[in-house]
Amino acid sequence: MSRLALAVSRGIGRVTESALGPYQTAVIRIGFAATWLLFLLREFPHRQELYGPDGPWGWDLAEQLIGANGAFTALMWSDGQFWFEAVYVLAALSSLLLIVGWRTRTMSVLFMVGVLSLQNRSVFMGDGGDNVLHLMCIYLVFTRCGQVWSLDARRARLARAARARGERVTDRTGPVLWGVLGLALFAVTVVGRLDGDWFVPALLWAVWVAQALWWIVGRLARTAQPRIMLDVIGNILHNGALLVIMTEACLIYATAGWYKIQGSRWQDGTAVYYPLHLDYFSPWPALADLLSASGTLVMLVTYGTVIVQVAFPFTLFHRRVKNVLLAIMITEHAVIAVVLGLPFFSLAMIAADAVFLPTPFLRRLGDGAARARARLFPRAGGTVPAQRDMDDAPEHTGKPEQTHVGFRA
Amino acid sequence: MVSAPQELRTGVAALSLRYRIGVALALAVVAVAVCVHIGMVFLHVAPSNTVTKKHGEAIDEWIYPEFEQNWKLFAPNPLQQNIAVQVRAEIHTAGGEIRTTGWYDLSAQDGRAIDGNLLPSHTQQNELRRAWDFYVSTHDGDNRPSGLRGALSETYLRHIVVLRLDRADAAGPGDVVERVQVCSQTTNVRPPDWSEEQISLKPTYRVLPWWSVPQNEAEGDVR
């Protein structure tokens, strides 16, 4: 019994003292935001047809469906062309800023607003990749995903150095951003545009209030206690969201795998042949024929896919096996991107897989990226956040002192 | 940035009882929310079972609209048929006659756009394909719509085919598309060479009734 109590208290210690997986949450932040940004850029010529007020899924149709299900989308706030273009551009801009980790928490909220606005506007345009992004953009809001590889981390480091020199550091951008967005949120709420489902509006208001609280407590509180409490709560939220993200990825694989087992084509070992020969998923027919020329090979890939998908969640308890399966799955998704013509679905899945990558590997990846950048832009050395923040990262010192990065006005 | 990092070093241990209670409350709320959410998502993606039959409404209440998901990717069986959506139009020409066009195979156009394409667009890969799925899932065998979604899917499909006909210049200058007819052609994927399976490769057709196109829509206004 006392061992159980000890384990529980150690667990509580872990989830309260730091925001776990700083590299993993940073890599999925970059992965999902980059997937969405690339998608928006690729579809830029088709944006009107996909999400515009005069697209085939016209504004009226969307209004009727959303009236029935209450989904959140800023695109229904106006049927004007200008508003549509503005939302599209802002969605792309917030993705870019989330990638570089500028005001990460706020950008993660705007990123969510962008993803939900466009996807919920035209639900019948999406596929599995859109579905992954839809869920993950909500979960990301709860994480401190800018602890490393971000401009926020760089700014925090510079601020620390300045304070160590005895300088006073004041942040003006944060409060301004908070004020402008709060005004917008207030206006939208007052005119009744947030009358659909309550969840997303409540989340928007909650983040806004929390940022104000964080700022006030840091500035006005007489003791450090309230600030520490908020920091700990931030950690708890982050760790909870991280668990949800990991579980979601496992549920995706488990569902995909377990349902396949019931299918006759997955049992007789021919399943992989068929998607390769659907007109909508065969950009390279010759390649598809080559890949499916051998019945034995198709059977091995068919069985292998099911085995990996079903097994993956269970291998999380064994580090090395998990890493092997992870490498296989990332490879398979990279192949699917090209062979089935599903690049953005594959990118989103690879980004989700990345949450399970081991920290040493991610650190090497970050080092490599920083070196590559330094080589490409030798003069820009001062603005390379990756390398330096790596040296600043919690793992190095074993002290999670960067946990305050995300939650601020 | 308003506080020195030294203040943050200590975590829960540095808190007085009052603030520890705050932390404990937050921990409890988050733990419960995480467990409930994971449970709800699990039940949402699981097959119909004792619990989902009993509490289906509560699960849907939690999941919809933002946490809906479907991961039956190519499962239980991958699609083994190519479904081509085709359309023809009845056109009121500038000269005052009524002309019926030949069939336009819109899915074949999509297929050609996807061929050799590293980055297929959702407009080529998903738009028509999913609009047709939407139509089929909201209509019975006699093409009778069910509910709001049935009506929406008809309008949506009509918008798409009118747009595509317009792009194909089906109607000449001064002509007006008055009615459209949609048809689907379903063909089994040829079994692999190394398989001994025998299946019919003869396509089957589902022909929808003619739909009249409202005047403003034929001119490109879908609102």
How is this structure best described in words?
The complex is a heterodimer of chains A (409) and B (223). Chain A is mainly α and 409 residues long. Chain A has a domain at 18-155 and 170-245. Helices cover 71% and strands 0% of the residues of chain A. Chain A is globular, with a radius of gyration of 23 Å. Chain B is built from seven helices and six strands. Chain B folds into two domains: 5-63; 81-218, no CATH class. The model of chain B is unreliable at 1-9 (pLDDT under 50). Chain B has 223 residues and is an alpha+beta fold. Chain B has helices at residues 17-45, 50-63, 106-114, 122-125, 127-137, 147-167, 215-218, and strands at residues 81-92, 98-100, 104-105, 176-188, 204-207, 211-212. Chain B is 41% helix and 16% strand. In chain B, strand 1 (81-92) and strand 2 form a beta hairpin. The chains are: A mainly alpha (409), B alpha+beta (223). Chains A and B meet through helix 1, helix 4, helix 7, helix 8 and helix 10 of A and helix 1, helix 3, helix 4, helix 5 and helix 6 of B.
Strand/helix succession of chain A: HHHHHHHHHHHHHHHHHHH
Alpha-beta content class of chain A = mainly alpha
Instruction: Give the percentage of residues in beta strands of chain A.
Output: under 5%
Counted beta strands of chain A: 0
| CA-atom Rg of chain B in angstroms | 27 Å
Structural class from helices and strands of chain B? alpha+beta
Overall morphology of chain B: elongated
Overall pLDDT of chain A: 92
In total, how many domains does the architecture of chain B comprise? 2
Instruction: Give the count of helical stretches of chain A.
Output: 19
The averaged pLDDT of chain B comes out at 92
Low-confidence stretches of chain B: 1-9
Question: Shape of chain A from CA axes?
Answer: globular
What's the oligomerization state?
heterodimer
Span of the ends, CA to CA of chain A: 44 Å
